[in-house]
Write a structure and sequence with these properties.
This protein is α+β, with helices and mostly antiparallel strands. The protein has 3 domains: 133 residues, HUPs (Rossmann fold, 3-Layer(aba) Sandwich); 58 residues, SH3 type barrels; 89 residues, Elongation Factor Tu (Ef-tu), domain 3. Strands 4, 5, 11, 12, 13, 14, 15, 16, 17, 18 and 19 form an 11-stranded antiparallel beta sheet that branches. Strand 7 and strand 8 form a beta hairpin. It starts with a helix and ends in an 18-residue tail after the last strand. 39% of the residues are buried. Pfam families: tRNA_Me_trans (PF03054), tRNA_Me_trans_C (PF20258), tRNA_Me_trans_M (PF20259). Catalyzes the 2-thiolation of uridine at the wobble position (U34) of tRNA, leading to the formation of s(2)U34. Its main location: cytoplasm.
Length: 379
């Protein structure tokens, strides 16, 4: 129970369904000032108090479990390491993967519970053979299946999402008000909870340090300098501080971050179009494709609120013995960075996900951006 309206209603519905329910709030920091508060947080002291008030109304036992050390190691330190390696991580994905459905679920099962129920908007469907599948929620605008794409088959077997069939968030808020929950109109949490002031660049500089490096164009020409490659993300436009304008007078965008050389590569917006993505850190949410080594049609989503894009996917073996999930969208994805998560869908079902290791630009180096041939949809 995060202290928000969704988890409060989910807990109440689980009780109504006849389950023996215990409310658990996760303490993710021993220093309250290091987590965002109010509408921008999700696991602060005030949130734990909101959760307890809801648990009291429902009439269930309530506990606060200290997962601060695990959160620091598996989410915060991972976030720093990924940025230091030139990737753009999604800490909410890591939190769902390693805290809520790994650490929390492990402890719950050890204590004799059958499942972890959360307020996520997603659905679990059981097929004719008894296999559990993760699907989108009925409310498309609030669907949160993307951030649950990291769940494995074993984790799905012990997961419950009581809000999955709810038509709208407004209905959940109305139900919360009827039940007398004080969080009925509490704003949704957002942004990174462990960066209190929202200054990701400054937060990283304190932990990674600063070092002057070069800003290059795609041909390797030096355009300017920066104070640390970790402060830049693919697709970024502002804050480049390049004195020399581009030949065409158009703005430049970050295309690549190279932490080993401490360089940042910039170029035209068109060069952000990506024709292929691939990752070796992939998992399946339920049964995998029957023949993953044979190309299959799917849809790919690269951000929580992005539209899915028709694509083809295949698992291939690479030189060092690893396997890689390669996804080719029907038309270019925009501004994709290594470290992001690509979630693969077949219809409404979440088939699996991959952390993106590499991307292939739709505009090769040396090609005039305006003359690029886009990759169009099939048929």
């Amino acid at each position: 129970m995060s202290g928000g309206v969704d988890s409060a209603v989910a807990a109440a519905r689980a009780v109504d369904a006849g389950h023996d329910v215990v409310g658990v709030h996760l303490a993710l920091s021993r220093m309250p000032g290091t987590l965002r508060t109010g509408s921008r947080g999700c696991c602060t002291i005030e949130d734990s108090m909101d959760a307890q008030r809801a648990a009291n109304i429902i009439g269930i036992p309530y506990y606060v479990w200290d997962f601060s050390e695990r959160f620091k190691l598996d989410v915060v330190d991972d976030f720093i390491a990924e940025y230091s390696a030139g990737r753009t991580p999604n800490p909410c994905m890591r939190c769902n993967e390693r805290i809520k459905f790994a650490a929390l679920l492990e402890k719950a099962l050890a204590l004799g519970f059958d499942a972890v129920a959360t307020g996520h908007y997603a659905s679990i469907v059981t097929d004719a053979a008894g296999n559990r599948e993760l699907h989108r929620a009925s409310a498309w605008a609030k669907d949160q299946s993307y951030v649950l794409g990291v769940l494995t088959t074993e984790q799905l077997a012990h997961a419950m999402f009581p809000l999955g069939a709810t038509p709208s968030k407004a209905e959940v808020r109305a139900e919360a008000a009827e039940r007398g929950f004080s969080v009925a109109n509490k704003p949704d949490s957002h942004d990174i909870c462990f960066i209190p002031d929202g200054d990701t660049r400054g937060w990283l500089a304190e932990r990674v340090g600063t070092a002057t490096g070069e800003i290059l164009d795609r041909e390797g020409n030096v355009l300017g300098t920066h104070e640390g490659a970790h402060a830049y993300t693919v697709g970024q436009r502002r804050g480049l501080s390049i004195g020399t304008p581009a030949d065409d007078g158009k703005p430049r965008f970050v295309l690549e971050v190279r932490p080993k050389e401490n360089t940042v590569v910039v170029g035209p917006k068109a060069a952000l179009d990506i024709a292929e993505i691939a990752g070796s850190r992939f998992t399946w949410a339920g049964l995998p494709p029957e023949h993953p080594e044979q190309e299959w049609e799917c849809e790919v989503q690269i951000r929580a609120h992005a539209d899915p894009v028709p694509a083809r996917a295949v698992v291939v073996s690479v030189a060092d013995g690893r396997q890689e999930l390669v996804i080719t969208p029907d038309y270019p994805l925009n501004g994709v960075a290594p470290g992001q998560t690509a979630v693969v869908y077949v219809g409404t079902r979440v088939l699996g996900q991959a952390t993106i290791d590499r991307t292939v630009s739709a505009v090769p180096v040396g090609t005039r951006a305006g003359g690029a041939v886009p990759v169009g949809p099939r048929g």
